[in-house]
Amino acid sequence: MYLCCVKHRLWNIIPQSYRRRAIVVAITIFLRALLNFVGIAMLLPILVLIIDSDNITSNATLSRAYDIIGFESHNQFIIAVCTAVVGVILVKNIAVLLLYRFERDFIYSLYKHLSERLYRGYHSRGLGFIKRSNSALLTRNINVVSLTFVVGVLKPMASIASEILLFMLLFGALMWYAPIAALLSIAIFLPTMLIFYLGVRRKLQDIGIRENEAQRIKSRIVAETFRGFADVEIGGAFPELFDRFERAMDEAVTLRKRNATISMLPQMFTEVGLAAGMALLVVISLGMSSDNLSLMFGVFAVAAIRLIPSIRNIMSSWSAIRYNRYSIATLAEADIEDDIKEACFTTDRFHFSDKIELEGLTFQFEDATAPTIRNMSLEIKKGERLGIRGASGTGKTTLFNLILGLYKPTSGNILIDGERLDHSNVRKWQNTIGYVSQSVFIADMTLAENIAFGQKPEDIDYKRVEQVLELADLSSFVSTLPEGYRSRIGEQGSRLSGGQRQRIGIARALYKNCDILFFDEATSSLDNRTEENINTAIRRLSAENRALTIVVIAHRESSLEYCDRIITIE
Fold first, then answer.
1. Highest mean pLDDT range out of 169-183, 334-348, 536-550?
2. Highest mean pLDDT among 91-100, 352-361, 452-461
3. 3-state class of 264 per DSSP?
4. CA atoms of 34 and 400, how far apart (whole Å)
5. Contact, 407 vs 399, CB < 8 A?
6. Which of 71, 333, 343, 486 could form a disulfide with 77 if both were Cys (CB 3.0 to 4.6 A apart)?
7. Which CA distances in Å does 438 have to 90, 393, 488, 501?
């Protein structure tokens, strides 16, 4: 029942487009096992020649080959047999390598697909999902868990399937050629695997889950430390954060050491099993003729050469699956659809020409007991300069996020020129608008790349960059940079002042040649002089382009002086 459940979850995780390839991979696994069996079988003629080189005729297969080809001496025949065996094994290994490359390509192609699907899937769930989730956890799922799934679960499963097939072929051949050696192999290695399974199955699963949780905690602490560095330093919080990091690290290291110890057990178990098998074979063979004894030992040794690594691989792969099984649950819970439409990423624009209308707009967060915005109606005309004010917590930013298409209304409609804003046209709408938040996002790129954010460096219109730098009053700042607007400005704009960050946000919006500019308390964290400079720049933009619609959220009346109309949210 448990295995069926796991198989069902695995099959659901594997994308539809990869399932046919998975069936082909299963066929290559069978072929690889068959070829490995052929490689072992080819060693038997050499074994016979070693044991009884003077009496080739005692072996029916070798005797027939000797007569058909017509060798002149036994030495010629032995050389020819050895050469043929080496040649066949060489060809076999080349074929096995090619088959394995197909399996390898499938595994890592699936990793790439899963990682990209998670990245795009999490993005497509929108701002509400991102705010509810832990960014370090999402990052780990995209970069680590998807790799763990294919390398730590699917790849070991393929290895187990191949080794079991080989084991079955070898056992069948042994039963036909040397039944005692075959039964002895089962009597030794089956209990070995059973003891190992019963001894470590629960420990491995527990270790894997706990180690994954420790790694999550570490990732979250590191991300929070660097993201809130100033607060961490001023608040003297680093010692406590480091103590939490150290505890998580100690937990992860301890669990890794336990897993490393367990990973050594398959080799120890198989070696003990081999020694026990050889000892039992000696006891069983007492009284046999020397020729029969040599042949039996030889057959058992040839089989053991491949059976021991096979058994070891089965146990090691099973250990890896148990250890990494958490990745199955993580990816299954992510429940990312495989058909995220490319149309969502269109570069088309919305031709805004009349007005924005809010009709009975209501929004309530999933975990809230009451709506943040209730039955709101509002009209914003093209070219209007609208100011929005209100106390903290009244839903001003939430209203913006609704108009920007970052949240979906619980009820009511947002109309753009009479057309309802929904998932089918939200990307076109967002291509039409510009947005400057209280804390403008700055990527670790050049100034020009931050202004033309989202474009490849080779596609940037640098003349347009120069124009918007002038409009946003950033030309004097650019002149101080060593490489002008091609200079890198640090992660999260670490080399920028607050006013410079906001001006870059304005320049970014202007670069898009947007029809509407949204300012979400864009000057609230600035000093009075810098705020006035930013407001002057906005007024100048509005005066130079009366068709440009500007919507501003602000606490201070001074930031709304240039607005045509001001509404208050209570």
1. 536-550
2. 352-361
3. helix
4. 64
5. no
6. 71
7. 67, 15, 22, 10
